[in-house]
Amino acid sequence: MATDSSLLNSELELQQQEELYQQLLLQTMGNKQTENPESKVIRPQPGMCVKTVSEPDKQKVFVNICQSNSVPHPPELSREELLELLQSEDPSGYRVPMTLGEPHTEVDNSSQGCTAYDVVINQDFFQRCQEDPLFQQFFILVSVEGLENKYNLELSRDWKVLKNRKFLGSVSEQNIRTKSRPVIQELQPQGSSAAVAKKPEFTLLVEPPAGDPEYLIAEIKLPGVPSSRSLVLDVGEDRLVLTARPSLFHLDIFHPFLVDQVNSMAQYNKSTEILTVTMPVVSS
């Protein structure tokens, strides 16, 4: 993504970005390792196909929920614990490992164009969702919210699981991590008191704390934002742009690493009012 200097508000902000860049370098480049992030290409198996529509234009959207044992199993959770979780103030505290594929254009049974997304989860967890409708509805909701956050969508909650179709289109390969998520190390932001009006406070994190960086993580404080549907997020190769509608906050920062835009993920925690953006760092 080309740098647009007109988007920077002042020489002070440029200085802040340079300080942050130097701090990131000190934290992540001190102990270089030759080992690359462990990942592999998988071809998931079809599972079930969920039909919904985008809002407000009512365009057809299909979510292909696929399965693979290469995706980690989420923490064990009983039906009673799931019910308790759904009634809690912060159900986002339970994470389901998944991969969210890029949108691809398909044709439905009516020969009409539509958009499909592929979501891959652990095969055993998929079977649990097949056996228990409560788990199935819970995961469909998690998938829909994940797609909304990653691709700035609004999808209807009035979805339908297709009975005679497990997948729309053709199954494509996906690249996934094969090692567990490492511990992150916090980098303190510089000059937050000098932030311009309506620019939210944010912190950049890198993981792992030693060796080549695998992830760059932005944690952005958004007090007063009611839900992720109010957010418009654009992750570039070297830049992150966030707008909270209607114009509550605006953040436009450049970061020092080349990141994978497609596999970046975002999650908004309504309880803490923090948006977490996880961006895989592309190995040089």
TrEMBL record:
Pfam families (UniProt xref): PIH1, PIH1_CS
GO terms under cellular component: cytoplasm; R2TP complex; ribonucleoprotein complex
Domain PIH1D1/2/3 CS-like: 212-282
Ranges where the PIH1 N-terminal domain occurs: 32-182
Record InterPro entries: PIH1/Kintoun_subfamily (IPR050734), PIH1_N (IPR012981), PIH1D1/2/3_CS-like (IPR041442)
GO biological process: box C/D snoRNP assembly; rRNA processing
Signal peptide bounds: none
Role according to the record: Involved in the assembly of C/D box small nucleolar ribonucleoprotein (snoRNP) particles. Recruits the SWI/SNF complex to the core promoter of rRNA genes and enhances pre-rRNA transcription. Mediates interaction of TELO2 with the R2TP complex which is necessary for the stability of MTOR and SMG1. Positively regulates the assembly and activity of the mTORC1 complex.
Entry similarity comment: Belongs to the PIH1 family.
Protein name per UniProt: PIH1 domain-containing protein 1
Organism listed in the record: Scophthalmus maximus (Turbot)
